[in-house]
Specification:
Layout lengths: L2 H20 L10 H11 L7 E4 L5 E6 L2 E8 L2 E6 L6 E4 L2 E4 L9 E4 L3 H10 L10
Antiparallel strand pairs: 1-2, 2-3, 3-4, 5-6, 6-7
Length: 135
Amino acid sequence: MSWFVIVGSVVAIGLLAGFARLLKLGHAAIDNEAEARRLAGELLPEFTVEQAVVCDTGEAALVGGPDGWAYIRRHGAHFVARLLGPAPDVTYELTRVSIACDDRMFGPYVIHLESEPRARELTRMLGTASDAESS
């Protein structure tokens, strides 16, 4: 095999990867609150969104409205959503907020935030005062 073929193959792979990145193919992340609101509208059409909190990693978001809260997270290249109960059991530890769930297939509801005060505030907004440090 000649060097020309090897170099040409590497360049072609690089170009394809660049085009995929440019077109945001395979990009499954919640980049901001507007994206969280849009996803909530698609996944939960009857749910009215008044506020949104996005995970720092873009993996998940919590959206709140008059009907309560919903959790949205990435599932492969797509997103899924679940409505939270009327009084979810919420805990926080440093910058991680965890919400108890009964759905074993869905996995834990976890949001990572940039600061502990934001985690404390989200825990308060969800309607509980429990946290890992006071236990």
